[in-house]
Amino acid sequence: MAKALFGSVVDPRQLGAAQEIAALRARVARLEAEVAQLRAERDDRIARELLTMATPETQPALA
After folding, report:
1. Which residues, 6 or more positions from 7, have their beta carbon under 8 angstroms from its beta carbon?
2. Contact 7, 15 (CB under 8 A)
3. pLDDT tens-place string over residues 38-52
């Protein structure tokens, strides 16, 4: 019913634009999630690399 009401108020060309905007927003959300995942993976890789670089005789910087 909401779609019928929306269609009666909005010009069909604007409806197409609204659908495109919704699709683009969904794509942006997926890309933002992918960026967050890639950043987490990068941070994890960096942390593992730093741990492998640490030797028993090195002192922690803030200790």
Report:
1. 15
2. yes
3. 999 999 999 998 888
Q: How far apart are CA 54 and CA 52, in angstroms?
A: 5
- Rounded to two decimals, the pTM is 0.61
C-alpha 5 chain-centroid distance: 33
* Cα distance between residue 15 and residue 5, in whole Å: 12
**Does residue 25 belong to any structural domain of this protein?**
yes
Q: What is the DSSP string of 11-54?
A: -HHHHHHHHHHHHHHHHHHHHHHHHHHHHHHHHHHHHHHHHHH-
The pLDDT assigned to 46 comes to 94
For residue 9, the SS3 value is helix
Domain count across the chain: 1
Task: State which residues form the domain around 21.
Answer: 17-50
